[in-house]
Amino acid sequence: MDSGLIALGAAVVGVAGTLLATVLSQRMLARVQAAQFEREQQVDRTRWLRDQELAELARRRECYTAANAAYRRFRIALMSYLWAAHQQQADAQERAVVEEARSAHHTAFSEAQMIASAAVLVQLDLMTRRLAGVYARTMRLAEGQPEPDGSFEEIHAQLIDLTGHWEVMRDTMRTDLGVEAGGTGAGDVGAREAGAREAGARDVGARDVGAREACALETGVRGDREAGDPGAGGPGPAVP
């Protein structure tokens, strides 16, 4: 009797151990598989975030490049139209070139403003206002109704001063893209802004001399163009 009970107990323990081992093995396997799945999910999530960051960086780079090119094109068109207006040679074709560049500038800046960082957005807004002011003064000068601060020399100086502001905007964009801005730090940005303000306050007489020299150069270039000189260059002086 005792031997039978012992044998029965041993059989029960054996069967229970076998069943328990199977259950435990399945649970351990499930845990391992869950951990592996979680790791794979984490890797996929990290890869997706990285891809999103790269795509966002590419979009910002494209928009900043377009905005930078549109600004330079608009500024050059304004400079050319200002020379033409100063010599009373501004016509509908010259005006159309300015309006086309202005429209392209508005489009590029509007797109950039949608994805720009806060720092770049500040520079874009400042540059938009400055360009709008120069455009309005140039058009009034061309129409023969200049503003009090809208003489040829003053507008020309403002267009030249925009270079300093553009450098600040460009370096802010480069910093936002993770590109070294040529060693430009906060002090350099402040110095450039101060330099732009100082350039705007230069002696009027000195600017007038530069303007007259530039006018003489422009007059010679336009004379060559009208005479059919194939070596004649584009309108106006070289724009930095």
Descriptive key words:
82% helix, 240 residues, disordered C terminus, single chain
Fold blueprint:
Blueprint: H1 2-86, H2 92-115, H3 118-142, H4 152-176, H5 186-200, H6 204-226
Write up this protein:
With 240 residues, the chain is mostly helical.
In brief:
The chain is an all-alpha fold.
Q: What is the overall shape?
A: rod-shaped
Q: Helix count, per DSSP?
A: 6
Return Rg in Å. Answer: 35 Å
Strand content: under 5%
Largest sheet: none
Helix-strand pattern: HHHHHH
Say how many strands there are.
Answer: 0
Helix content: over 70%
Give the N-terminus to C-terminus distance in angstroms.
111 Å
Task: State the low-pLDDT regions, or none.
Answer: 183-240
Tally of distinct domains: 1
State the secondary-structure class.
mainly alpha
